[in-house]
Amino acid sequence: MTSTRYLTSISLAALALGAPALAFAQDTAADANDTAKDIVVTGTRVAGRTKLDSTAPVDVFSGASLQQQATPQLATAIANIAPSIDFPRPSNTDGTDAIRPATLRGMSPDQTLVLVNGVRAHASALVNLNGSVGRGSQAVDLNTFPTVALDGLEVLRDGASAQYGSDAIAGVVNLKLRQADHGGGANVSYGLFATNFTGIYGKHTVTGEPSIDVSGWQGFKLGEGGFLTVSGDYQHTSATNRADNDPRVAGNPVTARTGDPNVYQGSGFANFGKQLSDVWSLYGWAGYQYRNTSSAASPRLLSAYSSAAYSGISSIYPNGFLPLINTHSKDLNTALGVKGEVAGWSVDAKVSYGRNKIDFWTRNSVNYTYGAGSQTNFYDGSLTYDQWVGGVDVAKKFDVLNGLNVAWGVEGRREGYKIGQGEPASYNSGGVNNTVGLGAQGFSGFKNTDQVNAHRSNVSGYIDLDQQVSEKLRLGAAGRFEHYSDFGDTATWKASGRYDFSHAFALRSTISSGFRAPSLGQQYFTSTAYVLSTGPVTIGGVTYPINTPLPTGTYSSTSAIGKALGGQPLRPEKSINYSAGAVFRLGGLDLTVDGYLIKVRDAITLSENLSISNPAVAAVLAGTGVSSARFFINGVHTTTQGIDAIAHYKHRTESFGIFDLTVAGNVNKINVDSIPTNTATLTNPPPLLLRNRIQTITRGTPGEKISGTLDWSKGKIGATARVTYYGNVVNPSSSDASLDAPTGPRAITDLELRYQPTDTALNLAIGANNLFDVYPRINPATVNTNGSATYSAYTPWGVNGRYLYVRASVKW
């Protein structure tokens, strides 16, 4: 089906679903214009602009829409209600199991900028390395922000590098912290899975794997004209397992663990504002999160390997073992600023600091080279990323034609990235069985030679003009210049326009250039890890089957090994973004339709795992102890195009209550126009990207996502029903299409019922996510060789099945 036909279908569906509501009595003016009152601050520097008056598409979501869901995880909650955002839940991908990236319009997770109250958020210390959507990215971890701390959020679906700097290629997510000087609330939710699934090797029933979330917030007056809002959240999510029976073991037991990790997490946020004078105010926030996560690697069955090579391990694990990867993530987010006015110019000056540190442990494992004397728990080292941002934003409106808004500003940023060494036994050789891989099985520690302590800085300046030419025509322009200490200068620009033919109909359009600076992690990350092979691999005359864990080295592109294999200094990604859309308003119904085209050149990606089965690679990797190597490289050119359509209708009736209906759809297509070629001076150098990397970019996220949500309330009762359709997603093989793992198109239904038993603020809810227990297609036996890969790891709604929950909340 073409994009035009999708657009027509979405628009007709939106109008058809809105039509029955039009048959009710006419709304009051206040109800009919509820959506038009959504003031936006993302993508514009003009005060008081609404989402329906913007020149670029902006989605506005309330805190209630995030919190009235089964999940307390922000990324999952956003993906449930935002049609252009995807949040797959990979498993058996090392640290990415614990810190999972989200995507906007199917693009790389680090091509979306995240702001907190308009201030740049810091990225996670984790670089996503293995078989996941967003492989190679170092992105912001949205789940470090508890939903209870948010008053809402905005999603700008448009390029905005000229306004905000690096990363805003696909768009911008702006998290708005709760602001309250009185009142408060508390929430307790409990849920579990009640699901059935059938694999290739057996049928399975799961009732349990419980999760609990406890959260609360309180507002305080901070003197005259001030507020302090304190929020806290505690989560415990049990590990889930959707692995199939293992055909390699007598009796076919389940030996693997595939699903969500076990998580203990605590978060706290404090947000304040204080009026200092008639025109000046002080503001700031501080947030901290501690997350303890345990996920599983692939099972190690002693019977599957040479007993001579693994002699002695059977005395520790007679039947093999399942390594666990344990991460402790500590995340800090702070800011302090002042706002005021100087000579008629509004001034906002602020400084922020963010830091994320992740410590790694491998548990329930061994280092084979120590034989029977191996320890079973290992400290593997740490990753740390921190960021200072300071800047001043200035704006003023001039009486030129119908109003000219001039905004300009300067910003400075300093980033740091560290790799900390693990204990020696996590990565070295114990002198026994030196023919096997070194280090802790499941996740090998960072070596002393992996240690990194890198920094860079950048300064930037921008100007942003918004001219109301006439009552109907508005034009905008922005430009930004940046200087980075590592790769030099870059400049970006943006132009926008909007014409309102009437209050009921308007056209809008933007064109902009964008960029994303290579992250410090992409430039400097170095490690050795066990990575599952994506196909049969022959090394030293021995052929290893698919899904065999093999030691793989990740090297800086400018290291000696990286350069020998074809690495070069990383350059910034560049983009050009076109968008055009329309806004329709009819009574209580509003409909926006926006098309976009985004061309990215020199995108950064992680190369293939270049195997020593290639003699040229073997010569480079001699003495390293790894069977393959990889590094980051520029050179992927892509074209992303699609259509977003969102229809909303809110209607109040005397007899039937309040109906709030939203139908939203995204149709998205990504093409890879060209890929990097190997620049190494090797004999018969291997390709840097294979089919699976290209197919992941083009087919790893849904080409179509359409959701319909109905919120209804009447008196003491209320309900939310949501149906989300996901197009087919493919987890591809490196060379053989018959080994691809498609999800198939699926529709997922969520339902929540709410009851307020008295006139107090107590509210009770019961609900189900994935009410009809829908799973993706089963992976073929050629992919699921040992029971660990029952379903595609790219499944956008997860692979856990039906989830039932109850929630009690109270406000005061």
Structure description:
- There is one protein chain.
- The protein is mainly β and 812 residues long.
- The chain has a single domain, classed as TonB-dependent receptor, beta-barrel domain (Maltoporin, Chain A), CATH 2.40.170.20.
- Helix content is 8%, strand content 47%.
- It is built from 9 helices and 37 strands.
- The strands form 6 sheets. The protein has a 22-stranded antiparallel beta barrel. Strands 1-6-7-4-5 form a 5-stranded mixed beta sheet. A 4-stranded mixed beta sheet has the order 21-24-28-27, with no helix packed on it.
- The protein starts with a helix and ends with a strand.
Gap between N and C termini: 51 Å
CATH first level:
Mainly Beta
- CATH fold-level label: Maltoporin, Chain A
Shape: globular
Helix content: under 10%
Task: Count every beta strand, where a strand is a DSSP E run of 2 or more residues.
Answer: 37
- Poorly predicted sequence stretches spanning 5 or more consecutive residues: 1-33
Q: What is the correct CATH architecture?
A: Beta Barrel
Rounded to the nearest angstrom, the radius of gyration is 27 Å
What about the largest sheet?
A: 22 strands, antiparallel, barrel
* Computed structural class: mainly beta
How many helical stretches?
Answer: 9
User: What is the assigned CATH homologous superfamily?
Assistant: TonB-dependent receptor, beta-barrel domain
Summarize model confidence as the mean pLDDT: 90
Strand content: over 45%
* Count of the domains: 1
